[in-house]
Structures are given as structure tokens and as C-alpha cells.
Fold these 3 entries.
Entry 1:
Amino acid sequence: MTAVAAVAVLGGGLAINAWINRGPETKVYEGPVAGYPLLVGSDGRTLTLSIGWGCEKRPELVVRESADAVKVSLRHTVAPGFCDPGGYGQITTHLNKPLGTRAMHDATGKPAVHFDERDLRRPAFLPENYYPYPAGRMAQVPGLAPLPTDTPAWAIGYTLGTEPDVHGSLIISQIRRSSTPPDGRAATVKGHPATITQDGNGSPRSLTWSDGTYTFVVTTGAPPRLSDEELIRVAESLG
């Protein structure tokens, strides 16, 4: 299942927090969802956005529907006084009826780029003691580049252990774009050429490949990191 160089899913940036005076009145305004990964659930009604924010309350997703279109925007609420800490996570709202063939646009009138959960591949194999990220959390691994937001993309995450006793992460990113795997150790996933990369001892290890339609990246955070063999086994089990 965003995004901030340190966020995998993720996409969209975590706003810079600063202790600044924000004025004497609460400000509420709506802005575009462009720049953040957006998911349309398999029910066609659930919309989920991966987002980071600062100096405001947790933003809200707002939708306005008609017979042939859906407009989705972000509602920001900035309270008076000093900056609150902000945060990052996944925010969700629901349409009155499934999106279907209706066009979806953001607050600027441009198409709202989104990933369809029905196309999301999930692993049949997970190493022992790996569990899905808690609901509302953004799947993240420090050092992993954010998801692109100009094409449908999404990431799902798993943790080694459960909070508060978490020891590592596994992130699976899926991008609707064919690409050539980066330089690295050669591997094969379902007959497709793949590479395994890791830059330095403190960085994540990633397995990247493309099936001609999607580019997949399976990344292990550290420590401990999954072995090359475990990464390949997770990748081979996606379906």
C-alpha cells in the first residue's frame, strides 16, 4: 500500500515544521491532491491519500460528486498561534457510489492521478513475524525515494514485529510504468530481469524489476534486512 525522500509510499512531501505565528484566526481552505499518491479501493468507493503535513491540523479529503464526475480536494485547517508538530499518514474518505467510469479531478480541474486497488499485487509469502502496517500509517523506509505522482503508483508495507516492538520493514511499491532495472546485482523475477541494490551499510536493500506494464520495488529496511533470497521469494509470490 507514499513521498519526502525518507518515505516510501509514499509520495507528496512532509511539510517543514517551524515555530511561527500563524495569525489570530483559524484559516480553512481547500487545495489540490496533486503531488500525493491516491488509491481508489477495490470497492470503488474508498479513497485513500498518503500525505505529510505540518503547521496545521490533519488534512481532510473532500469529495463532490455528480453523475459523470468526481472532484476531490484537500481541506486544510490552520489554527491560530504557533505550529503544531504535524505528521504523516493515510487519510480516507468515501464516495456515495462507486467511481465506475466517472472522471476524477482535483481542485485545479486537472485529472486526479490514482491507483486502482484491484490492480495491486500482494505477496502470498512473507517472512516469519512480518505484519501489515497499522491502518492509517504510511509505509516508509528511510532512504527510499518517494513514489512518483505523475502516474498511478502505490506501496504496501509490513513490519517485523508489532508496535511498540518493531525491528524492521518490508515495502512493496508498484508503479504503472515500465522501466529498466537500475545497476546492481543481477537477479530474475518470474522470468524478468531484475537487480538488487544497496548503497552503503545504512541504506535499504531493494529488488527492482518490470513486467512490461508495472515496475515493482521490494525493499527491506534495516536492521535486520532480508536476504537477497528472501526478497526474491517475496517478489515471486506477488499475485
Note: The longest strand covers residues 69-78.
Entry 2:
Amino acid sequence: MNVHKNANLTPRGRGEIVRRVVDLGQAPKAVATALGACERTVRKWVRRFQTEGYEGLQDRSSRPHTLRRRRCTGAQIAAHLGVSIATVSRVLLRLGLNRLKDLDPPEPVRRYERQHPGELIHIDITKLGRFDRPGHRVTGDRTGQSNYRDVGWEYLHICIDDHSRVAFSQILPDERKQSATAFLNAAVAYHQSLGVAVTRVMIDNGACCKAHTFRAARKAVGLKHIRTRPYTPKTNGKAERFIRTALRAWAYARAYRTSSQRAQQLPQWMHRYNWHRPHGSLKANTPISRLRLA
């Protein structure tokens, strides 16, 4: 008997593999050569025979796969097919469907980068709590924290260039249209001071960005507005990533006595970020190196 295609092995062909290896004691490699199958296939069917018997050599139903696509649980599939839950679990694991969330895999990350500095800047805002003594993030002591909750908030406005990763940020009292407009003008002016002409800005759909004041300021400096997709923060991922870096390496990096002291350290940290800190996305080069200024 000869077997030519692994994909077309019949139960009879699988039985012949088992007979030669298990009953006659032939080596899997020799059986694979004799039957025109690969050694891996021979070992698979022998292993399945040893764990499931002759039943394991039969064609398997695709119903576990189909039922799983209907979001049936392993127990429901087992009851429907009249098999054990353990068997269903093995099949689902082999198919990569043992978790329901695997039915809807996340959308693959699509990374992009503009070709030249200034083609696109990303703008975002995050709020920071004001304080007049070191907080529990640094001290680890929450005692008396409720007595200091009325100090209020301040807002970190950030801008990062899509190509160079050169960043600019300011702490402003709020995230309203006047503050957002002032920051936009300051960010454009900062990039101009580095010889970069900004042509596009990406920002979320917040109320401050929809205001007439902000739109007028954007048009006055000739910027095209690219909106982020609703409920999709990764669209503005470079800004989100910069915010996480700023919080870790500046805002919560040391025990500031007050939020004012923290704010005083922001310009120094921004200089280090742009001019001296190696950037992982730039092959360990600094952001300013892409502007050929360093």
C-alpha cells in the first residue's frame, strides 16, 4: 500500500502507518519513506493512536470550530456533540480558539511616519493634580489625602512632530478653547524657531478643537486639521506615548514638594528629551538629530 499525499490520508492509510510502526516496530522515518508521507505526519498519527485508539484515526468533525464561531462555550459544544469537555478543549486549543476573545483578534497595529518634519504634528492634553505637598504616588502614604483634594487641576498640553519626534509642551490652567488656541500658536512658533514649517495638525474631537476660535487660529497659520477616529486613541498614538513618557520621566520621577516645583522642571526635562535622550523609534538617535541641528 502506498500513500502519496499527507493531506489526503484516509483512515485506512492512517491505520497502515500505525500497523507498521506499532505492530511491526518499523522506524517512523522508514515508514514515511515507504508510504510517501513525511516523518512528522507518521509520528502525529502514531501519537494520536496511542492517546485515542483507533477512534483517533477517523476524520474529525469541523463542528467544534463552527459552534465556537457561534460563541458556544466548551461545555455547550461537548453536550451538543456528545463528547467530553476535555476532548473539546483539546480541539479548541489546537485551533487557537480556546479563549472567546480569540474569535475577534485585535486589529494589527499599523505604524506610520511622515517623511519630513512639520508634515504633521500631534497635539493632546492630559490633566495633572495640583498639590502643595508630596502625594501618595511618591510617599506611599495616603493618610490625610482627603484634606488636600480641593487644590485643583492643571493641564499639560503637548505637541510632538510625527517625523522627528521633537516635542513641545506647556502647563496651562484648563483645556478650554482659549488655552488650546494659545498652545497651538506657541507650538507652531516653537517649530518655526527650529526651521520647521508645520502644515498639518492631528488632534482629537474635543470641544475646544471644534470652537470657532481654535479653527480661526488654525487657518490663520495655514494648518490642515486631521481628526482622530472617535474612541480610537491609538490614532494619535505618538502623542499618547509621549504623555506616558513625560509622566514617568518627569511628572512622577521625583518627590516634588509642590506642583509649582514640578512645573519649573518641565522646560529642563523637555530640553533633555529633544536634545539628549536617545529615542527608541529613531534607532537610539535624539529627536533633534532629525532636524540636523545637533
Note: The chain has three domains: 1-59, 61-105, 121-291.
Entry 3:
Amino acid sequence: MRERFRAFIRILFAGLVAFFATGAATANAGDLAVTVRDANGKPVADAVVTAVLKSGAPLPPQQSNGVYRVNQKDTAYDPFVSIVPAGTPVAFKNSDSWGHHVYSFSKAKRFDITVPAQKSSDPLLFDKPGVVVIGCNIHDRMLAYIYVSGNGMPSKSNKMGVARFLGLPPGAYRLTAWHPLLRSKRKQPTADITVQQDSEAALDLVATLKQPNKKKRKPYKY
């Protein structure tokens, strides 16, 4: 009985230490809002901003919440840009009344599958960090991007161009932005900022983008 009681006390003490440590880290954390704009000052949606501690210290890893799904509807992928942590299974759902042929030649993930109408594919494991460009062999205008995160903490900008980071550990950060239409993939927008504990910081990043093709295309006929 004494040994069981002592074991119980040790477990209880360890739990209390972990609880108070987590509470202290949360209380001392800071928030950050990064607004991504183009060269004309317009907000840029679907930009992936990654925050990395300049000290090289690791940040809390993203948790994979089961199978991530990319939908195919009206001959388009939804979402256009996805962020998943490395090790996440991804399935492709076809909500159209016609088939799709999903593929990628990207180094981070190469695959080639068919998805019949009103069906979903088996999950594919995205285990290598990097950008995976998704196409369709039947409909060449269909494009999507899956950003498989590795080091750092990523966040995607919304329609207002804002990428939010909640509960960042205090410290000096290097921020880097990526977008499918960046004019130069080798010169991604970067900025440095220091996040203070129990504070809210804000920063703007300017992304020089290529002009999208505005030519109207005829819809597919079935």
C-alpha cells in the first residue's frame, strides 16, 4: 500500500509541475499579426508566413489532426493553398459529377491517382517538408498547393492578407513569406521582429507577385 501511495504522489507531483509549466508558458506567450501586401499595397491571400526563432531553438511542433482533405468542386481545388505538418495523410475528395486525375511531380511528394466522380481517394502520406504542386491530367487548369511544414511555425494569410500567430514563445524571430505567384522563388520576403511576453505585435511584408493570367477561358463541357 505504501509503495502504491508513493507512486501516486509521484505521478500527481509530476502532473502538477507540467500543468504549472504549461500555464506559465502560455501566460508569457505573445501574439503576432503579419499582413502580406503586394507591390501596390493590396492584401495578399493564401500566403504562407513561417516564423523561426533566430536563436535556432525549436518551436512547438504542429499537430497532425488526422486525415486532411482537399476537395475538388466545379473543376477547381479547394483550398487553393493548404498547410499540413510533415507526416500528415491527405485525401482528395471529388465532389464533381466527372472524374479527376490528380498528380504531382514535386520532390516533396510524387504521386498519380484517379478519383472517380463523387468519390474520395485513399489517404496519401505527405512526410517530407516542401511545397507540393497539385495538378489534374484531365483538366490542366486545375492547380493547388500543399505546403508541408518542417521547421518553424507556419500560418496562412486570409482574404485581408493577415497571417496570425497565437501564443508564440518570447524571442527574436525571422519571418519568411511564400506564395505560388511570387516573382522570385529564391528571394522570398523576409523580416525580423521581437515578440515580447504578454504582448501583441504587428508587421507588414511586401510580396512581389507575378501578374495572373486574366484571359477568360471557356468552361469545360461534359
Note: Residues 30-59+152-212 form a domain with the Immunoglobulin-like fold (CATH 2.60.40.1120).
